[in-house]
Amino acid sequence: MESAAETAEAPADAETPADAETPADAAAAAARAGAGKARSRRRRRVSAGSVAGALVLGGILWCLPGEEAGRPAPGPAAGAQAQAAVRTGAAAALPALEALIDEHEARVRARPRDARSWAVLGAAYVERGRRTADAAVLYPEAERALRTSLSVRPAGNTEALVGLAALANARRDFSAARSWGEAARERAPKRWTVYPQLIDAYTGLGDHKRAAAALERLLELRSGPVALGRAAAVYRDQGRREDAAAALSDAAAGAAAPAERAAWLERAGQLAFERGDREPALRYFQEAVRLDPDQRAAQAGRGRTLAALGRTSEARAAYRAALAGQPLPQYALELGELYESLGMPEAAGAQYDLLRERVRREAAGGVDGALVLGRFEADHGDPQAAVRRLLAEWRRQPGIEVADALGWALHRAGRHEEGLRYAATATDRAHEGTVRSAPYLYHRGMIELRVRREGAARRHLEEALRINPYFSPLHARTARTALVALGEPSVARVPDFS
């Protein structure tokens, strides 16, 4: 199995030197050794403008903590490992990213026309911004670095184009990500790192056929963990959960470094939780945090799963740990709803205030927060504002997530028939709604209940709870209550064919 941190095969363009992407298996000890120094060091920022173990998903985690055999020997220094990771789209440890950023900031100060160093620096800023949710600072720096790389070397600079596509995807600007990704593909159609960004862009735009075609091309060019991870995401969106699980299993087994393996385990935990497998999900999340304590998405996953297990004090602590290192609005929304489900409205309100503040802060870095803010407003704020926001989002990038959120917002605003059309788009196979999502089916079922389509409502609410009875501390309870009120299907109107 190829490692995600390994070198890409030599692309058709000539931008990559022979030593550009040496296989990098940095040991956990090497990353941890630099952690204290990297965190305590006062960061020196350079403005571009101023210079211009295997697992089995769905059941058992075979390699328990402390039982990993055959771990790779210590490899290159942390900065080299992070460089290989960010250039291939794999996860990198935060201390290694710090080392990489420091190194390339120094390089571009010394050689301001080094296009490749600018591109690597920009990609590192994107990854660090994604891992820490410091979009307001790091995403503009990333854009300046990547555009500087392009201005220094406009021709054949596929690496900068891929970096700009990754930045646009991180900002949820999928139209821009598609444009940058397609420009990169046109210049270097055999450069495999282009295709993960195109998959994300096409998915965000609701273009699932092109996403599947981009995945097919990616798998023709590459078979390592990054390709498998993207395949898992596409399979999950197609409703192929077992295929997604198998791909994630192989991705985790082939990971080059602890941080990369932790990222695939976190995805495995997400997949397990989505189908209601609480105990396996918790094991995946816990192992991810053990391997990489900065894996905040896994901390939030622990919170989600612990809440589903009824361990609410531990769940709140896990969410707070996630928010301390990666204060994403989505985590604040989930914790707020957990507090609300526990009858703690003041604590919930504090999280909702944090959500609004984080959306405003991320917007300063170019991040599109319409989806999470629309979801929040629909249930906890102003549904009319949610509709306006999500309608604009739908016109701009009509993905399945937006269809679901818009349908629910319309319902909450009293526009039930309109809402049902979008909810059907998110859940009907005829409309590419192949994701087997408990929240999406819950939304559709509740809208159908409101417009007196009791049979369809019962069917979709039952399916939501069959997929994941614990999908939300607030809404799963509402779904069960609605089903009890609906009762058993009536046979009074069944025609007599005797």
Give an overview in words.
It is a single chain. This protein has helices at residues 28-33, 35-40, 48-51, 78-88, 94-110, 115-132, 135-152, 158-170, 174-187, 194-204, 208-221, 225-237, 241-253, 258-274, 278-291, 296-308, 312-325, 329-341, 345-363, 370-380, 383-396, 400-412, 416-427, 438-450, 454-467, 475-486. The chain is mainly alpha-helical and 498 residues long. It has two domains: 49-62 and 76-368, Alpha Horseshoe (Serine Threonine Protein Phosphatase 5, Tetratricopeptide repeat); 394-486, Serine Threonine Protein Phosphatase 5, Tetratricopeptide repeat (Alpha Horseshoe), CATH 1.25.40. Helix 4 packs across helix 6 (115-132) and helix 21 (383-396) runs antiparallel to helix 22. The longest helix is centred in the last third of the chain and has 19 residues, at 345-363. The radius of gyration is 23 Å and the shape is globular.
List keywords for this structure.
498 residues; mainly alpha; Serine Threonine Protein Phosphatase 5, Tetratricopeptide repeat; 2 domains; 26 helices; 0% strand
